[in-house]
Design brief:
The complex is a heterodimer. In chain A, α4 (102-115) packs antiparallel against α5 (120-129). By secondary structure, chain A is an alpha+beta fold. Chain A has a 6-stranded mixed sheet, sandwiched between helices. Chain A contains 9 helices and 6 strands, in the order ααβββαβαααααββα. Chain A has one domain: Glutaredoxin, CATH 3.40.30. By secondary structure, chain B is mainly α. Chain B has one domain (3-135): VKOR domain (de novo design (two linked rop proteins)). Chain B has a two-stranded antiparallel sheet with strand order 1-2. In chain B, a hairpin with a 2-residue loop joins β1 (51-52) and β2. Classes of the chains: A alpha+beta, B mainly alpha. Chains A and B meet through α1 and β1 of A and α2, β1 and α4 of B.
């Protein structure tokens, strides 16, 4: 009986490990990425990151080919997450834009599809770590499969993603977004205000976040 | 404790485990909000370890608990041996999943912890049943 137990549990564990490699998370394979997900322990729901009941919502408008967006996401976001998101004060919502070209849209579509699996932020981070020169063809099928997994790639042509892209573009236009990254801050469920940031470091958004939290 | 009581307790635990697995599977299929006090449930449930070759781990859990429930309710010797084998397999696999949560995903899900506790309980009861059977006169 013990042999059967060992064989069955060994098979299950081996299958789990093989399957996880086949659909590996970006942060576990990219040499430049953190050793484990930066978002571990934080709830993700679609495009939202953090406690759904957080007092303040920060909306980020970004294009996946924009180098400043990559810098903000990989350097500034971890600091803000520790200060505001992990403490349950702020939730962050991603609004993707694809104005820089075809590589932007391809990457964005897969990122949004990953949101259906509540993995949008992990995929976003993985793509930023692999960001190449604008419209150089860096968004390859193989890279997308590696970063986002087959399900997200297969789901990236869904009609709801067309609507989501349109909705984000309209929201950006209505908010007066002129470039990326751009940010809106406000009380969760309330009106959002476009924030003019002087710096892409954490200090650029702290005043707006602190002010919204103090209200 | 008698074999009868041990079987009933195992069946009750398997039913509770099936409830947890069923809930996690329902949330996964419907996209409903996952109740979570530990904060890491969604991270765990959306990780690449939440599926094995396209099969949700919650579905495997539901099938496993159903098999444990049926084999706990049956009174034959074969059922007892199969129940013990399943319980020990589930315990080993649960330990692996606990390692995955803590070391690989970096988040802990309260439902998985509850399931781990239930599986451990069923495995201990299964071993006790073997002991009781060995002690019983032929």
């Amino acid at each position: 009986m013990l042999a059967a137990v060992a064989a069955l549990s060994g098979a299950l564990i081996a299958a789990s490990l093989v399957a996880s490699r086949g659909e590996s998370a970006p942060t576990m394979t990219a040499p430049a990425s953190p050793a484990r997900s930066s978002f571990a322990g934080l709830p993700q729901r679609g495009a939202a990151l953090g406690d759904p009941n957080a007092k303040v919502t920060l909306v980020e408008y970004a294009d996946l080919q924009c180098p400043y967006c990559a810098r903000w996401s990989t350097q500034t976001l971890p600091v803000l997450m520790d200060e505001y998101v992990r403490t349950g004060q702020v939730r962050i919502v991603f609004r993707g834009l694809a104005f820089l070209g075809p590589d932007s849209e391809r990457a964005l579509r897969v990122t949004l599809a990953a949101g259906r699996q509540n993995r949008l932020w992990d995929v976003l981070e993985g793509l930023y770590y692999r960001q190449g020169a604008e419209n150089s063809g860096w968004v390859t099928e193989a890279m997308l499969h590696e970063v986002a997994g087959h399900r997200a790639v297969d789901g990236s042509g869904a009609p709801w993603i067309d609507k989501a892209l349109t909705k984000s573009a309209q929201a950006a236009q209505a908010a007066g977004v002129a470039g990326t990254p751009a940010f809106q801050v406000g009380r969760t469920g309330g009106p959002l205000e476009l924030v003019q940031v002087d710096s892409l470091g954490p200090e650029g958004l702290r005043p707006a976040l602190d002010s919204a939290l103090a209200r | 404790m008698s074999d009868h009581r041990l079987r009933l307790t195992s069946a009750f635990l398997a039913l509770a485990g099936a409830g947890i697995s069923g809930y996690l599977l329902w949330v996964r299929q419907t996209g409903a909000n996952l109740i979570c006090a530990t904060g890491g449930c969604e991270t765990v449930q959306s990780s690449q370890y939440a599926e094995i070759l396209g099969v949700p781990v919650a579905l495997l859990g539901l099938a496993g608990y159903a098999a444990l429930l049926v084999t706990a309710l049956l009174r034959s010797e074969n059922a007892r041996l199969l129940h013990t084998a399943l319980a020990l397999t589930a315990a080993v696999f649960s330990t692996y999943l606990l390692y995955v949560q803590i070391e690989l995903v970096g988040a802990v899900c309260q439902w998985c912890l509850a399931s781990d506790g239930i599986v451990s309980g069923i495995a201990i009861l299964a071993l006790l049943r073997l002991k009781v059977a060995q002690a019983a006169p032929a």
